């Protein structure tokens, strides 16, 4: 079905299409747009923190708004839509069906994202991506806060609709000759993450509604002045968003499962343990939410329960790492760009997981909680693992989407710079956390260690920024002028690439 | 699916599980010791509000932004908030506890050396969160 860009079609034909590859393309472009927008805010934050004092951002309110919108954008408007893009392209093909189960619903789920994104960006709220009450009820300025709440509600509905579509497509529309155990791991990853969404998101939807009525002064669920309890919100929030981190990471791991065996020219070491680890992770992912709340005054028993629940998720993640390494072992590895991103992503996944174990241990959490350590930790996941897996997969699907090859040298430069940058920024932030620098601060006292670490981190961020510019240039230039790809086997790794010609787009 | 045997993977998973059990047990033991408040600890009422800390000693002395304590004594901090969530933190003594309106959280510590340490807010609480700081001053025992 080699695509759009070789046989140009008017843009509205793609926009009003409900075909899964067209919707996938819309998701893809939207998510990349938000990646660059959110990334620009990250650079602003890092530039501001290069030195103590106010540099480029005028006041702390603007700064607080910038990091809030940065986080919200990259998690909800980049990572999640990116996964949906990949799912839209590949899930129907992998289960050998002509489209998603509900094509119109699919298009609707996509079209909820732009208005939600607009609400979030135009509002520019300042209450962090947790919107913790009572700050979010009594202190956060409206209408920014209300716009953020509405934007997130819309995104939640969109996620749930998308998840229903994936579950039904995989379970009900797969080819009758295909048993569920033969469904490729990438599709399994969408099945598991969609099931998590269906369990987790409604909880947050309820919390957001309660937050909104609290802001309107009608109720007092989370407002202590009206007899409510802010901690109740924290429980609802983390019951959704701890599992949600697995919603983010599982598809990225699924993408690595596509790339690693193919570029190692070996079958996956253990297909079954991949499935097992996905399913296990989506269940135990729910047992750990309150590890974000050790310092809220929980009892010793509660803390212990959630520590055990958190540690229980580690073996499942570790099984994926094992599977990847065992697959590469003795393989004839071809280090092209997609493979480099995946291998780099695995290395950072491992480091981030090790940091997670330290966070989970309750006495250690008191040194790390709400410091830059946490910022470094979860960015190693979201940037180092999830974005790395996603970007690697983007290079991998590039010939499939455009019919052309990207520039390999530029792809490798992009990877190397991003890897170096990521290590510089996020490892350093772990150290900053150990020195006690709180997160979400606009300015900091001139403590020499803090200054040095912040400067290293800011330089790392600039390196990532430059590499992303190279990436953008490569993507745009090669889409028009790249050399035509061999769609049977664009990477010359042998074996079958995706059955591209089976995904016939009706408008071709 | 795969033709080969998977026993190395089982060993690996076993090692990971054992490691997690060890981490969990160590953390549990440490936390148990840390949470045991000495009976003679002096109570200090700590209040967070946008955007400063205030303190009230057992004898009624009040302080704002500075907290004077004596070396070698144990202190039990009762942490309150007047408006939104804050988090009371003395990084050098690993003291961290959220200040949540409508609740009283407690944490204790015993300063060991004379000197000054930073107090800061570690939970986002709005405009001046970045500068919601104070100083802990540890002095020689008075008599
Ligand atoms: C799957 C990928 C993961 C992602 C995307 C992720 C993301 C995050 C995020 C966003 C936070 C910030 C919470 C905050 O601001 O307080 C966080 C904190 C934390 N994470 Fe992860 N995480 C992941 C995996 C893990 C794992 C595997 C563990 C444990 C083994 C873990 C343990 C923790 C703990 C204990 C905290 C709380 C730290 C604190 O604020 O005190 N995480 N993580
Ligand atoms: Cu505060
Ligand atoms: Cu604060």
From TrEMBL, chain A:
| InterPro entries for the chain | Cyt_c_oxase-like_su1_dom, Cyt_c_oxase-like_su1_sf, Cyt_C_Oxase_1
Q: Which PROSITE patterns match?
A: COX1 (PS50855)
Q: Do you know which Gene3D superfamilies this protein is assigned to?
A: Cytochrome c oxidase-like, subunit I domain (1.20.210.10)
GO CC terms, sorted? membrane
Q: Where is the Cytochrome oxidase subunit I profile domain?
A: 6-479
Pfam annotation, one family: COX1
What GO terms describe the biological role, i.e. biological process, of this protein? aerobic respiration; electron transport coupled proton transport; respiratory electron transport chain
Q: GO molecular function: any one? A: heme binding
Q: What is this protein called?
A: Cytochrome c oxidase subunit I
The organism named in the record is Candidatus Nitrosopumilus koreensis AR1
UniProtKB/TrEMBL annotation, chain B:
What does the record list as GO biological process?
Answer: ATP synthesis coupled electron transport
UniProt entry tagged with the keyword Metal-binding: yes
Q: Which GO terms describe its molecular function?
A: copper ion binding; cytochrome-c oxidase activity
Compartment list: Membrane
**Boundaries of each Cytochrome oxidase subunit II copper A binding domain copy?**
39-143
Report which superkingdom the organism of origin falls in. Answer: Archaea
Give the InterPro entries listed for this entry.
CcO_II (IPR045187), CcO_II-like_C (IPR002429), Copper_CuA (IPR001505), Cupredoxin (IPR008972)
- Member of which family? Belongs to the cytochrome c oxidase subunit 2 family.
* Descriptive protein name: Cytochrome c oxidase subunit II
Which species does this protein come from? Candidatus Nitrosopumilus koreensis AR1
